[in-house]
Amino acid sequence: MKLLIDFFPIILFFISYHQASFLINNTFIGSLLDTSKPEVIQATIVATGIAIVASFVQVGYHWLQTRKFEKMHLFSLALITVLGGLTIMFGDPDFVKWKPSALNWLFAAVFFVSFFIGEKTLVERAMGNQIELPDTVWNRLNMAWVVFFIISGAANYYVAFHYGLELDEKTRMDTWVDFKLYGLMGLTLVFIILQAIYLTRHITPEDEAIEETIEHATHKENE
User: Is residue 111 in a domain?
Assistant: First the structure.
């Protein structure tokens, strides 16, 4: 359930983008749009607006359930509100395309800075209560997250702005929207599996709930 909430805005962005024509023709959303704009721009505006609303719902739901805010949800909300708002205002998809890269690189910076602030890295703070590992292993895991976030941000940047430049605007946008869901989610799952394999080399079979550790790590990749 937690994983579904984490990916909630991304999933709705994907669905609403590909179903934008239906939403425009059959709901009040159509009356809010400038129908003179190209179809791909209209679809992007619809999907972006719904993603912004979904992000507010995500943050609100988590607060109602736990009476606290998830920092990564707040970071994501701030970026989608600012960059998505610019996309809606100017009708330019490039702003919202930057959001996954900016978010991933922000996370990379936060994880990296945790090497120098406090006694524990961010990964150890998150999972240290569940398993015991040597400091060198915690440091490697933390650096692995740094590298993962950098690569994820770079992959999004490439697909968003450099892949298929010879293609028409709609095809390129379709490709990026699909990559945003399937590609980035796939990268996350592969990384989590590799991390789980690495962890099994350093913990005993008696250690508490390896599955809980994997689930907790998965939740660190947001939208």
Answer: yes
